[in-house]
Amino acid sequence: MPTDSPAPADTPRTPPAPAAQVPAPPPERAAHLDPGPGPTLRERTDPEAPADAPRGYRAVFAVPEFRAVFAAHLLSLLGVVVSELALTVLVYDLTGSPLLSALTFALGLLPYMIGGTLFAGVADRYPARRVLVVCDLLCAACVAVMLVPATPVAGLLALRCLVAAIAPVFTGTRMAALTDILGEGDLYVLGRSLLRIVSQSAMLIGFGAGGVLLTVLSPRGAITVTVVTFLCSAALLRFGTRTRPARTATGDGGGTLLKESLSGARLVLGDRRIRALMLLFWLPPMFVVAPEALAAPYADAIGASPAALGLLLCAMAVGHIGAELFVGSALSPRNRSRIVLPVAALGLLPLLVYVVRPGLPLALAALALAGAGAAYVVGLDQWFVDAVPQGLRGRAMTLLTAGLMTVQGLGMALAGLAAEFFPVHQVVAGSGITGTVCTLLLVAEVRRTAPGRMSDTEGRDGADRHMTSR
Asked: How far apart are CA 253 and CA 249, in angstroms?
């Protein structure tokens, strides 16, 4: 299934306790708070671990269930990227319309919020493994219908929408399931990090692989690969992970799925702390997509070659992957938490380089730095999972995924609209300035909502964060 995003953004129980001596929002649970130097989070949770026990990313891969989830994510994501490219070519071949061809990409983003809002209850109402496998099988069935030559263009676009609507449910369920597989501490954070790295890498590899496949296969032949990857993903999740009970009961008083989904969204967004953290996942990506959305016109404006355009599109992902690997492997959980707010606040500043209409080398450096700024989410993942109650976790993760994809699509659209009236380099620089101001305001709100800095009534905003939709 497609993700994360970012995208953002997957997932591994004591609630966070106030810590008056810590000025920044405490990222770890009460048992882990310690303002002075000391052992890492992993060391605190497993003091009996042998000295030669795997640590960092190796410790995550030492968990058999995670290896199955990782392999399934890699396979399905590569398949999705290939199918997006092949479907775009297929629609263009059938219609000759650039608008409809471009619409196949847009339809991969627009249904996210609909599916993530209306069907989020699935993530908590049913066992995670069942949800993940069924989502993969439904997507495989939708893509298989695309292979039928009699399927009209409208049908292809409708099926594309359906796959996109299923995606946030799958991703949110998987994020929540990681808390069961890896726990809620450092392993969960590193597991989420690995899946994000795979998502970024798949964008670099998948489009290249798709282009190669289209030189030897027809568009429908390339789409066949996606059917296979979805089926393989379903098999890996079915036989590589354990079955676990649903997070919420579905008895007579369970209510309808739609009611549970909407109630979950109200409870999640009604909690001031969770809302602030969710916005911190959403807001910087909304602005940072501007240079990618406008890469083609900017390359044309500076007289760059098509190869340079490819570099402009890859630079941000390369920066993101490198920074996330460094933060995940070189920094302790405490230090990852300490850099969340500073890096989030400063992450969009490299885009200000566009004020001087930079040439290719300087633009690539700025984009790589902006991509590196996304590494703040590694520590933010821990804050978020600590803030969300167990019974709401699936719905919260689904809403997080849906919102992230939606705001990125909105950011691209707004950047394109602004470029109709202003030079591209000014639009990108303006996005960096506006995004930095908005993020600074949001960082202040995140600090205010830190555990111990507000009363329980202020945090709830009228909604009881410890209630489920029942």
From this structure: 9
**What is the number of alpha carbons within 13 Å of residue 63 lying toward its C-beta?**
22
Residue 447: its H or E element: helix 424-448
Radius of gyration of the chain (CA): 22
Residues 6 or more apart whose CB falls under 8 angstroms from that of 172 comprise 116, 120, 123, 394, 395, 396, 397, 398, 399, 400, 401, 402
184/388 Cα distance (integer angstroms):
11
287 vs 84: CA distance, rounded Å: 24
**pLDDT interval class at 432 (50, 70, 90):** very high
| CA pair distance 399, 367, nearest whole angstrom | 28
Give the list of residues 6+ apart from residue 355 with CB closer than 8 angstroms, or none. Answer: 425, 426, 429
Compute φ and ψ for 251, nearest 5 degrees.
-75, -160
> In this predicted model, what pLDDT tens digit does every residue of 253-291 receive, in sequence order?
445 877 777 877 888 888 899 999 999 999 999 999 888
Average pLDDT over the chain reads 79
Farthest CA pair distance, the chain: 67
- Token pair of 149, please? 């030559």
The single residue listed with the structure tokens 């699509």 is 409
CA 232 vs. chain centroid, Å, equals: 22
DSSP string for residues in 9-58: -----PPP---TT--SPP-S-GGG--SSS---HHHHH-TT--TTS--THH
pTM above 0.90, yes or no: no
Residues 280 and 348: their CA atoms lie apart, in Å, by: 13
Determine the Cα angle at 139 with ends 137 and 141, to 5°: 70
pLDDT of residue 369: 95
